Structure formats: C-alpha cells, structure tokens
Amino acid sequence: MIPRIFHLPIILSLSMAAASIAPFAGAPLTASAHTRLQARPVQAAAPQSAVWAAQVGPAPSVPLHSVVAGTPATATYTLAQMASVTEIVLRGVSPSYFLFVPNPEEWKLTGLTLHLKVTHSSVLTADSTLTVEVNDTPVASLKLTAENVGPTTWDVTVPPELLVGEALAVKFNGYLRISDNVCADVENVANWARIDAASTADYAFERLDYQPELARFPYPFVRNRSLATDNAVLVVPQDATGPELVPALYLAGVLNQRATWRGLKLYTLAPSELTDASRSDYDLILVGRSDRLDLIRQVGSAWPLQVGADGSFVDAAGQPVAPDTGVVMLISSPWSPGHALMAVTGKTDTAVLNAARAVRQTEFANLARGKYALIPSAPDSGAPGKELTDWSATTFQSLGYSDETVNGLGKHSVHYVLDMPNSRVPESLQVTVLFSHSPFVTTDRSYFVISANGIPQAGTYLTKDNEKQATWEVTIPGSQLVPGRNAIDLLFDLHLPDYEACDDLYLDRAWGVIHSGTSLSAKFSGAAPRADLANFPVPFDSGAMIVMPGQPTPNERASAFQLYSELGKQLGVRTQGLEVITADQASPDKLTDRNIIMLGLPARIPLMFEALKSAPVHFDGGTRSLQTSSLKLAVADGESVGVIEELQSPWGKSATVMVITGTDDQGVGRAALLLVDPAMSSRLKGDVAIVDARGLLTSLDSRGPAPVTVLPSTSTSITLVQYLLMGVLVLAALALTVILIRRRRSAA
C-alpha cells in the first residue's frame, strides 16, 4: 500500500456566503408565525484535572458517546437545552412555532417521547386545540379546556417512522378562540397558549459503531448533529515548553473555528493528569513528539502506522517515515470504542508543527482519506483569509435563508442577521427586496417596512402593482450600520378591507412572502474602525503574531489556550493568519510591520519592555502609574492586577501591539479572561483595561474621547451660573440699599 502524502499549497479568501447552513446550526431567524430556533447545549462534566476548560457544567443524564454500540439506551433533554428559548408562546387564532432538533449521526433513534408542560388562557373556548407535527406530519392534538388550563403535562409519542433525516422538524400549531369573531380574536391579548422550556424529550436509541475517517474531520471532536455541547481533550507533553504548545494551540484554534453554535468545551491535560474516566468519556487528541508522549507508543499496533521504540514511524509499505514528516492518525479509542483517539505527531518538533499546520487548514479534510496522513513539509497557506470590502449580489438564500411566508392579520416581523466585516466601516447597504403578498389585502392599511438595527429605514404600501414577485430597492446609510453584526427586520402589517365579513376562510386570505432571492450589496470605506478593546479581535483579524514565553507557567499556558480558542471562534478561517512563536524566537525583524499579541509577564518576554515604553500604564512591583496627555498619576498598593494595553507598535507605525500581562502570574490569567468571558469583554473599551483579584474592572481610553459633534444650541433657558450671578447682583443691590438707608438716618 502506497502511503498518502499531502502537499497543501493554499491561498485563502473568505466570503460571507461561503458556508451552507443546516437548519439546526444556522443563522437565527425569527417570525411571529414561523420561527427557527437555535438550541442551547447540554453541559458535560469536566475532567477533574483539566488545565483549562472553556466551560464547566453538570453532565447530561447519559453521555452521548459512552453507551456500548448496539445497546439500547435513553437520554432526556429539555426544550431549553434543545432550543434557545425560555418558553414557547403562541398568540392569535392560528399561531405556529418551529424548532429543529438534530438527529445525532452516531445514534439510531428508536423512539422519541415529548413531555410538554402546557399552560393556556382560561378564557379559551372549548374548540381551541394544540397540535404537534414532526417532519410535516401531525402526530397528536390536545383540546384546550378549563380542566387543563395548566400547567398540564401532555405526553406525545412520535411514531418511529418519522425519526429520520439529519434533523427533526417539530412544529406546534395552535387553534385558539375566545369568541365567535375570529378577527377580534387575532388582536385580543387574552388569546394565548404557552409551552414551558422545562418540557422534556425522552430519546431512545442504539449507538452505532464509530468508523474513523480523516475525511470527516473535525468529526467526532465537533459533531454538527449533536444535542449537546461537544467535548474533547488535547493531551500535550508533560511540562510542555512553549514550542511544544504551539501545535496544540493550532488544534485548539481549528476545533473552535469549526465548532457549532452549541459550543465546544476543550480541555488540555498532561499525561499524568489523564485519568481512566478521561480516557473512557472523551475524544482524545495527542499532540506532541512521539518520544514525549508514551501513550502513542503504548497504543502500539492499534495505530495504522508502526511506531518504533525511539518514536520513529514506518509506513504501510514498510518504509521509514522521514524524521521531519508530520504524522496524523485517527482510530477508535482502545479505552472506549465509541470515542476517537487522534495523534498529531512526528519524530521531531518540526514534524509535529507540520502536522498541526496541515490539520488546521480547511482543505485538509477534502484531501485526507482513511486513518492516517503524512505531511512532508509545512503547508504554504499564503496570505491570511481576507474579508470582502463589498458584497455584490449576496442573497438571503446564500446566507442560509429560504422563502419566508407569514399568514394572518396584523404585524409579522422576520428577523435576519448579517455578519459584516469587523474590520471595515460600512458606508451603505443596498437591499433589493423580493416580495409577494395576497391580492386581498387592503391597499390603504397594509404596508411593508424595513428596519436596520431596530430603526425603520423605509416603507411601502401593499398594492396591486407590487403583488407578485415585486422588487423594492432600499439604500440604508452607513450611519445606521456598524462593523460586524447587523440586524435587518422586514415587517408585514396585513389588513383586509371588510371586517364585517370576517371568518376563518377570510382570515387566511392575508399573507405575505419574503423571497430568498432578496439581495444585499454593501460598500465599505477604506478606513478601519478605531483601534479599541471594544472592537477585539480587530485589527488582529487580518493576521497577527502571538508571542508567549518559552517556558510558560500554568496560568500562561491556560491563558494562551483561552485566547487562541476564542480567536478561533471569532475569526473562523482567518485563524490561519495567526502565527505563534515563543519569546526566544521573537526578534525585531520578525515583528516588523506585524500586528502582535504578547501574552505573559514582561520579565519572561524581553521585547515586551520595548513595546511598553510608550504604554499609558506602567507597573513596577506594587506600583502602577498612568500617564496621558493631561495626567500623570502613580499608585502603590501591592494589589495583584491583570492589564491589557493596545499600543502602536514600535516596530511599525501602521501596526498594533496588544500586551496581555499583569503584576504576577495570576494577573496574566485574569487579563486574558477579559477577552474570553462575554460578561467581561462586553465592558471593555478604549486602550487600557485593568482587573484585580476581586474582578473589579477599570477600562479607559488614555488617548482621550473620540471626536464628538456638538450641535449649536438655540436655547434661551437660564443656566445655573446665570442664576448665581443674578443672585449675587440682587444681594449686592440689597446691601447697597441698606447702607444708603442707614447713612440717611445717621445724617438726619
């Protein structure tokens, strides 16, 4: 057998429409009568000795992959875990609610029972009902009566023949009446039913055998059809040095880059921290030289390649693998056949780095086949992925949205999320809306409105002229848009001309459609947003050098994994534009005109002292000093603090340096957490952030406030100062009067 060797010369570009979106992992879309929901992940227990974990939480009732293949098993999830909702509320006469539930590919579903906690209005009439559909097939209906006002548990068993497909489309249909006037019922707020998010679903399944296949990477470490948060463990050499951690950082980046919105909890362990439970309950990736990881040699013949006692490899043809050739292998775990064991390794540090750089390329899975791949040299990744400076003819369909139909009287809002480049300032967004509507709606009361980020931008009446596949062009100015995520809402307000003739059939005549061919064309200015901690990861999204200590402490190691994983989530394919080096590898030549992130204590990264010369905040022992254009202040208190500063690079006028450091090792960890914890990162602004052991955060802009336009005032109101001056004049006049009166009396 001839070994498969990969050469990966890759030039990357990022298009906002590059990825297809599955219904259970796609962009959020909501509508009052037709709603797609994202699901909330089930939490899993962390390995007890985890060096770093993105998240920690309780385990689900049954681990997804820990059941022996072919053995019947059950697992229970709540709607809150399966779908990103606090509760499901149905309003109006004929409301409906969609959610898509993944069908895990490692399961053969044998049963599904829903236990729905239903509450409804006490004034509903006796003919009100609630119906559940699965994959467009009705499976059960409930009559809503005074006896089950609630909360009532309604058990719904889904027929086995409907448990097919990558996702199960679950739809709740209501028929809610409180009077004989159906049109009045539409707008009456007392007309409602609710399904609690604590409702549960019992899954019955048999786990299928795991079949290792590199072409499916990052599966099974990232499972697109999982019901739970994905979990994986990276095993690195004992007391790993900085260079040994770099390949593991690349793996952390690509796994977080490819993770679904349900999330990924990634742990790093040294071999001594790997317990029997960790081996049996988690998918493992061994990252490091074969002579530094005894586990690689211990697995022995289970690998597709022979591993020598000295850490060398022999390919399937019996030929020795060159020392600097990277080796990637994937097998079923010998400790738990339902899990995967992967090795990203080689005989030398260069080999391991080559393997990790190959695996982090999105094209790796397109080329790889089988259980192993040999990487003879470092992939040429070319320039980092770039964001487009304009969108030309991007459609809702290319963003993962289909035609959206709304039915019934009143307001129906459909919500779209647009992820524009973080590193560009939008000048305008041209939206060409394709829509249709019922010919029966009134032309003087029914209308269509487009809003950007919650602010209405334009509207049009629904008439005979725009009834079928109409085109409506709207230009949204840049002042209504922001770099990064923007929201576009399209609102139908539908009315019929004659309420007197209102009945169920008449009500169904009100409808509108937003077609997926609706297109977007955005223009961006050449300027980047102002460098600011609030805009992180800008400007590092266009490529950066990350510098860490050569012998990292546990906190520095954990911080590096946290930071790189977060960058993987936020940058996606552009993570490939990030390069990690250690302090002993850094030199002014390597840092010239590069955006740089330095992470660690200054004493452990000598070039950090050069970067900090122009920093507004300096610290020496327990003393911190702040120097701006208008202030110089020093404080000594001995507190342990973490500090983030964003500076102009001393090695390039157009480049930025971010320093993540602290007064001690714990401070470095707290500083890195500011960029990872959403509750903290949302509070960052300016160019300096300081956090102490209590979590007290100070975020400031030492450069002064950004320019603010002040409108001239035409107000004639009297200010406080004017009142004071008038008071002084009055008192002076009174005093002068008293003096004059006394003089006159004295003279008399």
Describe what you observe in this structure:
The protein is 17% helix and 32% strand. It is an alpha+beta fold. The protein folds into 5 domains: 70-207, Galactose-binding domain-like (Jelly Rolls); 214-375, Chitobiase/beta-hexosaminidase domain 2-like (Chitobiase, domain 2); 394-524, Jelly Rolls; 533-700, 2-Layer Sandwich (Chitobiase, domain 2); 718-748. A 7-stranded mixed beta sheet has the order 2-14-13-15-19-18-20. Strands 32-31-33-38-37-39-40 form a 7-stranded mixed beta sheet. A hairpin with a 2-residue loop joins strand 25 and strand 26. Helix 9 runs parallel beside helix 12.
Question: Could you name the key traits of this structure?
Answer:
748 residues; alpha+beta; Jelly Rolls; Chitobiase, domain 2; 5 domains; 7-stranded mixed beta sheet; 17% helix; disordered N terminus
How are the SSEs placed, and which strands pair?
Elements: E1 30-31, E2 52-53, E3 72-78, H1 79-82, E4 87-91, E5 96-102, E6 107-120, E7 129-134, E8 137-143, E9 152-158, E10 167-175, H2 182-187, E11 192-196, E12 200-207, E13 230-235, H3 242-258, E14 264-269, H4 276-281, E15 283-287, H5 294-299, E16 306-307, E17 313-314, E18 326-332, E19 340-345, H6 349-359, H7 364-367, E20 372-375, E21 394-395, E22 404-407, E23 410-419, E24 426-437, E25 447-452, E26 455-461, E27 470-477, E28 485-494, H8 504-507, E29 511-514, E30 519-524, E31 544-548, H9 554-571, E32 578-582, H10 588-591, E33 596-599, H11 607-611, E34 617-620, E35 623-627, E36 632-636, E37 641-648, E38 656-662, H12 665-676, H13 678-681, E39 688-692, E40 697-700, H14 720-747
Parallel strand pairs: 13-14, 13-15, 15-19, 31-32, 31-33, 33-38
Antiparallel strand pairs: 1-23, 2-14, 3-12, 4-11, 5-10, 6-9, 6-11, 6-12, 7-8, 7-10, 16-17, 18-19, 18-20, 21-30, 22-29, 23-28, 24-27, 24-29, 24-30, 25-26, 25-28, 34-35, 35-36, 37-38, 37-39, 39-40
